[in-house]
Amino acid sequence: MSFITLDAATRKSYDVIVVGSGAAGGQTAYTLTMEGARVLMLEAGRHYDPLTETPMFQTNDQAPLRGVSTVDKPFGFYDATVDGGWEVPGEPYVQATTDPASRFTWWRARMLGGRTNHWGRISLRNGPYDFKGHSRDGLGFDWPFSYDEIAPYYDKVEMLVGIYGSKEGLENTPDSPDGCLLPAPKPLVSDLLTAKYGRTLGIPVVACHRAVLTEKLDSKRLPAKLHPGNANAQAILAADMQRRAACFFATECGRGCSTRSNYQSTTVHLPPALDTGKLDIVTDAMAREVTLDKNGRASGVRVIDRRTGKEIHVTARVVVLAASALETVRILLNSKSASFPQGLANSSGKLGKYIMDTVGASLVGQIPRLESLPPHNEDGVSGGHMYSPWWLYKEQLAGKLDFGRGYHIEFGGGRHMPSVFTTAGMEWLTGGSYGAKFKEDARRYYGSTMYFSGRGEMLPNEDSFCEIDPAVKDKWGIPVLRFHWKWSSHEINQAAHMHKTFAQLIESMGGRVRGSVQTDGRKAIAHGGEIIHEVGGAIMGESARNSVTNKWCQAWDVKNLFLTDGAPFPSNADKNPTLTIMANAWRVADHILDRMRRKEL
Amino acid sequence: MDRRTTIKWMLAASASLPTLQGVAVHAAQSTGTAAVAKPYGTDPDLMKVYKAGDLWPLTLSSTQRATATALSDLIIPADATSPSASAVGVIDFIDEWISAPYEVHRNDRKTILTGFEWLDKESSSRFSKPFALLSTAQQRQICDDICYAPKAAAQFADAAKFFARYRDLTAGGFYTTPEGRKDLQYVGNVPLARFDGPPAEVLKKAGLL
């Protein structure tokens, strides 16, 4: 089994169809196939091979326009994303209003592995509060399960994927059990400065958690921990772990990694799943709708072959949607039938509701202590070596802050590979130098600026939702999403708090803030969707009356339909959603296996 | 830092550069592309080495190239450490940039070509010669009036905006070359068996030891 055509897929029999090949689809297919289930994976985008397509050491002078971003490659020429971005040609989405503050931007990647190929690899566990937020402070929704229930799956994902980090004993910032995490990389000088001066402000600065192999994975110990009693799975995984190299501390993770030293679905989940012989993958397969049989069970998925435009029906015992939260919601809303005129699994009317992103605000500062440093290599693991977890839980619960939930701080600086923008706008420091003086100034200021970015929890609200636009269709004739978006005062005040905090940090380090510190959070906050952490739209809950799925992310209305991406998330903690998506997908896949073994599916 | 942060950080570095929002809006408007210049599309070959002119024709005239060379080398002259901007291909980069079939670049084309015209006009009125034929001292006399937009006189406001953008592009073109990276003493992009963090002399200088 391997990469096949849609036509071939119609002639075979599968236990499970998985729509999507990113963090959720990859993890779901991995777990299912390692335990023997036959899986058909559908990916809307093209086949993508990071081993041959990753520009590992290319420099900006080898790229068009020195590698800067364009509408075709919105995160830069060498970013791993192909056929993706804020706009996908022929696949529009619609804003419900023209008010810029209500705009929602939607990053999609039409490629095997989806957005995992380029993501930031930050892999933080949600804490106990994050699953029971409503019980703790009366805001938002509780999850229908607790941290303790998902914790073993966080352990497993960390061991499988390879995530560095440390144990700090901080509130609502879980420590992993021994043997789960890889050692954190050594801090950069900008990290150490932030830690030193952060401490004076009461802000903790600790090792970040990111999916990068600072060491080779232990292929002797880990497979038995991940697949106890399953010798075949252990052998496959051990062999695959041996093929993943440790990071060599150069080139950006966002380009992807041909040595498989960080996590991408295409380098970590899919290779061992394919090695089981149980996984078939069809690329260029655009899911249109989930179909039902006469008993009201999902019978399969109607798919458009993007190369021929032909519509094809594939079938299986179970259907899993893992297409990314909003694409999953779109597929369900478009799966209309006599029994589900408002979209499949939508008898609660909650489908499309409570979509969330992460609150983002950033500030840049220039730190004189970092000027004219002796040259040294600061490439490191190309993403945060350290970060600041949220530190004001007690003050917030006591009502001392004017926003409901917290944020963490991602920051960085350093002598990174020069880009077109390295010296751009430098006249704010130089007063407009040019000539020999400019060259001296560039040497002095290179590597002396730092950024601080807040990543905060958004509370779900009634005004942020998506629905099917009544008129607009994509080039395949599939109706598209229309977005409604509104930040509440919780998010707006949180963004203002971020700016205030970052300015304090920069100034405590002896630095100067670039631009304005906003006291009005509306001027600091990023657009909805811009942080690319969108979740929600198919909320899981305790009751079929007010949620779309149960705690197993199983549709209340359709017994053999599961959602393993971020769509069922009832909240969006500040912790960045990908690790939780993977842990939850493993948990749900285990449940599916269990029910299939009991012949209940 | 992750790629997304890199981009945002870089964008934050200059108010005159395109914003993410701007890029998204421009996507809808990018249909009016000039017939000869085609965007490279959403799935370009990332492994190929590209040169200016490979993807779309370069369009600066010889007169414009002469002005560009004079101005770029005034901004980045040769010194004991590294060559001048024009010596490492910056003029081709500027030409590639202002000839590119994207909205941001079309706007820069207007800014820069208008700026070149202004420079020649100003040079003629002050010294009766085009900018490229002036002495360095004469060129500096003009550029001193436009090199810092916040303090430029009202009649030089537009020219100062042009100069700021042109300086950013010249420097961006220069520091992305091997010679430019060497000038800044960037020592990364090499595989390492281990990552040791900053050496003691760095920590000492930053006040951490």
Structure notes:
Chain B: It comes from Povalibacter uvarum. Chain B: Residues 1-27 form the signal peptide. Chain B: This is Tat pathway signal protein. Chain B: Keywords: Signal. By secondary structure, chain A is α/β, with parallel strands linked by helices. Chain A has a domain at 181-207 and 359-456 and 488-524: Cholesterol Oxidase, domain 2 (2-Layer Sandwich). Helices cover 26% and strands 15% of the residues of chain A. Chain A contains 16 helices and 19 strands. A 6-stranded antiparallel β-sheet of chain A has the order 6-13-14-15-12-18, with helices on one face. Chain A has a 5-stranded parallel β-sheet with strand order 7-2-1-11-19. The longest helix of chain A has 20 residues, at 489-508. Chain A starts with 5 loop residues before the first helix and ends with a helix. The mean pLDDT of chain A is 98. The relative contact order of chain B is 0.11. Chain B is 53% helix and 0% strand. Chain B has a domain at 62-73 and 80-187. Chain B is built from 9 helices and no strands. The longest helix of chain B is centred in the middle third of the chain and has 25 residues, at 103-127. Chain B has helices at residues 3-12, 20-29, 62-75, 90-98, 103-127, 136-146, 157-175, 178-183, 200-205. Chains A and B meet through β3, α7, α14 and β15 of A and α1, α2, α4, α5 and α7 of B.
Fraction of helical residues of chain B: 40-55%
Examine the coordinates and then state which fold CATH places here, giving the name of the CATH topology of the domain at 181-207 and 359-456 and 488-524 in chain A.
Cholesterol Oxidase, domain 2
So how many helices of chain B? Answer: 9
- Counting helices, strands and paired strands, the structural category of chain A is alpha/beta
Shape of chain B: globular
Instruction: Kindly estimate the percentage of residues of chain A that lie in beta strands according to DSSP.
Output: 15-25%
How does the helix and strand content of chain B classify structurally? mainly alpha
Number of strands of chain A: 19
* Separation of the first and last Cα atoms of chain A: 23 Å
Largest interface: A-B, 108 and 97 residues
- CATH class group of the domain at 181-207 and 359-456 and 488-524 in chain A: Alpha Beta
- Spatial shape of chain A: globular
Number of strands of chain B: 0
Mean pLDDT of chain A: 98
Taking all residues together, what is the mean pLDDT of chain B?
88
Cofactor (chain A): FAD
Keywords (chain A): FAD, Flavoprotein, Oxidoreductase
Pfam family, one (chain A): GMC_oxred_C
Organism (chain A): Povalibacter uvarum
